[in-house]
Every structure is written in C-alpha cells, then in structure tokens.
Amino acid sequence: MSEDPYRYFRVEARDLLEGLSRGVLDLEKGVHDADLVAQLLRLAHTLKGAARVVKQPAIAEAAHHVEEALAPHRGARGPLPRSWAEHVLRHLDDIATGLAALDRPAEDGAPAAGGRVEDAVRTVRVEIADMDEVLDGLAEACGRLGAVREELEALGALWRVAETPADRRGAGGPARRTPPVVDDHQPSLEALQRNLAARLEESHAHLLRVRDAVGRLRLVPAASVFAALHRAVRDAGQSAGRRADFEARGGDVRLDPHVLTALRDALLHVVRNGVVHGIEPEAERLAAGKPAAGRVEVQVTRRGDRVAFVCRDDGRGIDVDAVRRAAVERGMLSGPESSTLAAAEVVRLILHGGVTTTETVTQVSGRGIGLDVLRETVARLKGDVTVSTEAGIGTTVEVSVPVSLSVLPALAVDAAGVALVPLDAVRATRLVTAGDVASSAAGERVVHEGDAIPFVPLAAVLGRPGPPRGDRRPRPAVVVRSGTRLAAFGVDRVLGITDIVVRPLPPLMAAAPVVAAAAIDANGGPQLVLDPAALVTAAAGRLPDAAPAAPPARRPVLVVDDSLTTRMLEQSILESAGYEVDLATSAEEALAKARLRRYGVFVVDVEMPGMDGFEFVARTRADPVLSRVPAILVTSRSSDADRRRGLEAGASAYIVKSDFDQGRLLERIRELVS
Question: H or E stretch including 502?
C-alpha cells in the first residue's frame, strides 16, 4: 500500500476550515474586530495553496471563492448580511465534502511533494494514530522495565542467600563462612546493585512521566466542536423561523478525541432541540419580557476525571403535559399513570426515544430521535445525562463523560485472577461476612446504605472457579453502580487503584459480555477491564449455581508469539477455558522454557524474529522428551505450501489467523492433551 498522500493536508485543512467557519459566523453576528476579515483571508489563502500542492483543484477553487467573498469586507465592523454568510458557508460546505472524500485516498496517483520545510517549527500537527502508536510503545517499555525490576529483586534475594552461612540455611553440618570471593567483591556488588536499582527507578519514573505527557498531548480542546454547534444553532433557527444566539465557554478543557468525536453529533441534536423546541418566536418572547433573540449556550467544565457539557437554552421549557400525551399515544404510559407521574419522571421519558411534542416533521425535528441519539452515545461512552426544565425559563441538558477512554483510573481486584473495574463506577468497598448475605430464589443480596442489592462472587460472573461453598470467611466486596442500579461483587482481594492504558479487544476475541476492554500489566500480561453496566445486569439476572465440579488436572499450555495482541488473545481464550498458560515472545525463549517444565501443548506463531515457528516445531520433534508435546501452528500464512511445510515439520494442527475460530482451537487442544 502506498503512503497516504493527504495525511497531513487533512489535518491542516480541517484546522483552517474550522477557523473559517467560526469567523464567518462571527461576522454574520457582528461579534468581531477590524482584523477578523484579514485573518480569514489568510486562512482561505493558505487553504487554497495547500490544496493546490496536493492536486485538489475543487477544494482550491472553493477556497478561492471564499477569498473573493471576503475581500470587499476588509475592515468591516458591523454584522454582514445573512445572504452573504449563506453564500460563503455553502463554499465551506463544499470544502468539507471534498475533505471527507479524502478520508480513503486512492492507491495510485500520489501527488508530488512541494513547498519548503521551515527551519523553526513552533507547532507540530500529528495524527491521533501516531500518538496511539507512541503510547503503545511506552506501555510496552514500561512493561519491560517492570520485568527487569522483578529480576533485580530476585538477584537481591539470591545475593542474600549466598552471603548467609550454610547452618542458617538449614543445610546441616558445620558452619561455613561466606565464600572468600563474596567477601572480596561484596562492597562493589552492593554498590552496583544500589546504583542499578536507582537508575531503574529513575528510568521507570521518567517513562511514566513521558507516557502521561503523551496522553495529555493527544487530548483535544472542547472548542474544536464549537464551530459545528454554532452552525447548527444558526441553521436550526433559520429553518424554524427563530432568532437564536450561540455562546460557548470552557473551550480550553481537553479530552480524548474519540470521546469528543462521538459526543459531537449528540450535542448537535441537543442544541438543535434547544432552538426548535425551546426558543419561542420573537413576538412571544417580547410579550414575555425576554430579549427578541433567544440564547443557546454550552459550558464545558472539568470535574476530576470527567468532563461535563452543560447545554442551556432560555426558551419556554419542556411542555410536560405534551410529553405526557405523546407517551400515552405511543403506549409508554397509561392515562392514569401519566397523570400521577412526577414532572421530573416525565422529562426523563424523552431520553427513551420516539417521544416528540412537535406535530409536524421537518428537516431538523419531529421524529423524537434527538435525545435518543444522545442517550445511546452517552451510554457507549460510559457517561451520564440529566435533563431539567422550568416553564418559561428554559431547559438544561447536562452530559458527563470520561476525559479519556484510553487512559483511566481503575480499581484492581483479585477474583481468581486480576480484573479491573473503572473507578468512576465504584461506589464503595466493604467486608462481607456470611451473616451479611441473604439468600432467596432470586439470588443473594446484601444491604448497602439501607437498600438490598444483588451480591455475587465476581469470579462466578467471569466464569472462573470461586471459593468453596462451605467457606464462610469474611471477604471483600466491591459495590458497582450503573445508572441508578447497584450490585456488590465478592472478590478475594482489593489490590488498589491504578491508572491503566485501555486497549480494545482483538477482533477475533469472543470475550464474556462483562468484559469491555483489556489493559497490559507491568510484565506485559493482559488484564480484563470490566463493563460496569454489564456487571450490574449480570448480577441482577443471575441465579445461584450449583457448586462447580473440580476441573481435571491439566498440563499448562505454552503460547509462543512475538505479537503482544496475539499473545493476549490466546492467553485469554485458554485461561477462560481453564488452562494454565505460559508465554514466550520468541522460539528461543520457548525452547528454554520447554526444557524446564512439562507442557501439554505448544501454540506457536510461524513468523518470528530469529528462529521461526517451523524450525521450533522441527527442533522439538527431534528432541526425545519434547517430541511427546504436540504443537499447533497459528499463523497468517495461508498458502498450501506453508501448510504442507508446517505439517511436514511435525505440527499436529495448522490454524490460519484469518479463519481463526476460538471453538476450533479449544477443541483441537482438548483432543491433543487428552
């Protein structure tokens, strides 16, 4: 695949387009200084030149039209006509359409490079994918340093054993003093150990600071969506025959671009609703003593690890009686229910979708889907949304989302293995005794803050072996919240709070519904990141199970792959099926491990640096001891020749990654180890 020829142009052009859109809307309102037109002319000229460099004449021509429209208004001080703004915004829409078409560049016809490189660069634009790659590399480096630290600790333990007299080690016989060579080099070795430990800690702390800095660098300001929200308010007002001004504050608050991109479309629905359903016609506003033009404002604030978007309008407020009637017509409420339901509960109905008080369908309203989109988006982002309204005063929609879905604080717990629960969903940790648990046909419950909430061992939810049924020792529990629902989960230990770099699950991984993502521990091993909503749902719907039968003893499985993602996938699949798993990042490391421990099966990649999988299998088949351990090749190489070569080398099975099936892998392993 050829390099993307528009990679940097898209980043620059979108920045320029955002500045142009914001400026044109300010000119239309008259909120600008005498230099704004000159600034916009520079933006349009820069965009035109950049488009010509990458051979995009349509974008260049549209930017030229924007220049021509701006030029006569240099030094303008008052608002410019709406018809003028419409004309310019149409050209900006053409540019946006052209940029969208470049998201999937053609393979051929890459343009020639042009322009000169600046000697001094004050600002660097980067793609989010590049930042993600840096973060992944730093996480991997931190993992490797963690492993080195453990080896250093092991070295220290061996040193202490070496310098201890034999009789104190329980070896029997007469006491022997420390070997002379240890005495001779003891000061140097101790100094070396101290220096190595200090340098390791400094390096690890430095890498963590760099990781955090890169994490902050990849965050984008909330102001990057303000121009789109301003445009939505303007267009909705024009379509509905309303006058509405837009105000925004808190644009310097930064958050994950993936969060902001997902939230942008939902916020567009919110501000459009504020205009169409909230802002009254000019005559009605004047009669009510309000300014002729309505106001829609968005305020963004940082609240710990979350960001709140508060969208307010100063319109008539939500017509609660109209919502009641619409809910009855749709069958969501009966007539008697609607008359007794509190106003706050009625308002919450509009978040369920399909409830609209608009009698006619237009291009911007009438289908009752706006706040439904908001609810679904916020749920996907693990956020919260509330709606409040006051008749004649206006409506406020508040959306709270995590700053980042990539780096977040989590509570680490041990439940027959480490699991991670997003910290913002943890309401409490407590000790649960046998007397605290009440059993019924609907499952077990514990009392938390006066309410009986579901209680279930977390290991059972994850399909792991839990404590024996007769074990009545007090155990820790974690209370998890999702929306207004709570559930408690018994764990073996609460390990503490940690910041994790969240990684999406591999596409082939069929994880349990309660697993949302994965993280990598200090040694490069995978850890499960749990979904609070799925956890609470699972606890509410789970009946007590019979005591699980003890699984038959199995020899461990050795997974050999240089890809972190593949190791994580295969380890998770095998451990979920009850196998103990060891990992090796190379065939050489795997051979060393195989000679120290008896395995039930080798699961081996083919393409690895140094010794490849074919050679590893051939060497183990030639070894009198290792030849008794079957080997499965899991590889992306799918040709008949490669498959033949693998089987001829002695592999018991050959699985192609593109046809990967978790059930088939487990079935083949069961056949081989039995």
Answer: none
Which pLDDT tens digit goes with each residue over 325-347?
Answer: 877 777 666 777 667 777 777 77
Whats the size of the chain, residue-wise? 674
Above pLDDT 90, what percent of the chain?
14
Residue 247, SS3? strand
Q: Please, what is the average pLDDT of the chain?
A: 77
> What CATH architecture does domain 220-402 belong to?
2-Layer Sandwich (3.30)
Q: Which one, of 609, 611, 669, 619, lies nearest residue 649 by Cα? A: 619
367 backbone dihedrals φ, ψ, rounded to 5°: -105, -5
| CATH number belonging to domain 407-540 | 2.40.50.180
- Rounded Cα–Cα distance for residues 247 and 229 (Å): 10
Residue carrying structure tokens 């051929």 = 108
Beta strands in 350-463 (DSSP E): 384-390, 394-402, 407-414, 418-422, 426-432, 438-440, 443-448, 451-457
- Is the pLDDT score of 403 beyond 80? yes
- Are the beta carbons of 340 and 327 closer than 8 angstroms? no
pLDDT at 363 over 60: no
- What number of H helices and E strands is found in the chain? 20, 23
C-alpha to C-alpha distances, 499 to 14, 209, 307, 382, nearest whole angstrom: 32, 12, 18, 17
Beta carbons within 10 angstroms of residue 295's beta carbon: 19
Fold (CATH) for 7-101: Four Helix Bundle (Hemerythrin (Met), subunit A) (1.20.120)
pLDDT attached to residue 659: 63
Domain extents for the chain?
7-101, 134-165+184-217, 220-402, 407-540, 557-673
Confidence of residue 214 (pLDDT cuts 50, 70, 90): confident
Amino acid letter, residue 208 = L
Residue 209 near residue 141, CB atoms below 8 Å? no
73 alpha carbon, distance to own chain's centre: 45
Asked whether this chain's domains 7-101 and 407-540 adopt the same fold, the reply is no
Distance of CA 56 to the CA centre of its chain: 34
In CATH, which superfamily holds the domain spanning 557-673? Response regulator (3.40.50.2300)
How would residue 631 be classed by pLDDT, with cut points 50, 70 and 90? Answer: very high
Tell me the pLDDT tens digit for each residue of 370-392: 566 787 788 778 788 888 888 88
The DSSP result for 456-493, as a single string, is EEHHHHTT-----TT----EEEEEEEETTEEEEEE-SE
Identify the weakest region by mean pLDDT among 194-198, 261-265, 495-499, 653-657: 194-198
Instruction: Return the biggest CA–CA distance within the chain.
Output: 106
Residue by residue, what is the 3-state secondary structure of 60-125?
HHHHHHHHHHHHHHCCCCCCCCHHHHHHHHHHHHHHHHHHHHCCCCCCCCCCCCCCCCCCCCCCCC
- 113-122, 164-173, 291-300, 587-596: which range is least confident on average? 113-122
